[in-house]
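quick one before i forget lol
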Amino acid sequence: MAAAVMDCRNWDEDSYRDSILQERETLCRTVFRTAFAPNSNPNPNHDIIVAASSDGSIASYSISSCLALGYGNARAVQNLSTAEPNCLIRGHDGPVYDVKFYGRGEDSLLLSCGDDGRVRGWKWKDLSESEVPILGSSVEPVIDLVNPQHRGPWGALSPIPENNAIAVDFKGGSVFAAAGDSCAYCWDLESGKIKTVFKGHSDYLHCVVARSSHSQIITGSEDGTARIWDCKSAKSIQVIDPRKDKDFKDSCSYVGCIALDESESWLACGSGQSLSLWNLPARECVSGITTHACVQDILFDNNQILAVGAEALLNRYDMNGNIISQIHCAPQSAFSIALHPSGVAAVAGYGALVDIISQFGSHLCTFRCRGL
């Protein structure tokens, strides 16, 4: 067989350099959050998953299409294909850190937040029911909220603080934003104005969840604490500090992720390489463990806790902190878990990778998200 011959006379150094940079950028892109779209069909194979990425994009993917194309093997990351989205839009200037659905069914809103300090919302129906894929086009949001700037000496305005996470309260018509100025903001979606500002943390916020049954929110901060806030008075009614527990004397000094169970009585708290479980009515920590890697996202699955972090594992714990299972996943560092009502989980993170894992622990499909 004759060897291939390269014609150096037509060599394009600029094109070669651009292709290398583009490949590196693709491999370094990160999916910070995924969410399963509202769907009346209980079969997760007919569902849509939305991914928020570090390049400012928000994209939706059909799980059935990914399954039909045979995307992926979680152990062969280098050979993973880039999936074609149904919709790909520029959501924010800078990374998109969170996406949430507000409402139910076709009339729901897709809300997002990001490094530009904005909370934006699109009608999900407009994004999901287009006859042709929406790729790279500019779809105007119906909601566009911007965090306030603070005045410093001589009237100078501070930069717009970023939003690291959002939580929704559908009954109250509100969205809560965890911001980089140490505050949480409650926005009224109908008027587009701030209803409440929650002040008390001494450093920027990583996460927020709504405890709607008690008219409360819970925030986690770089200052090492989680706080429970009363939404009516905007007062902090409880401070949770994992470092004060004897099991976590050497724990990291920030609370990076939190999760509430369905009863809103149990709080899981990820703080560096530690995971603690708190009984909120009793106001006490009931279990805690030290993990091998930093915990970056957690959620409840009935009476169990799912956790991912700076390792290629999806960990499942019982309420006493004992490991039930560890499943290898595609992202070498995972930032997001999303759970379908059927028990199917989506793990996403570094490399723009999304791994769809069945309730039995098998990999249904694994794909790389497309960038802008």
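fyi The longest strand covers residues 96-102.
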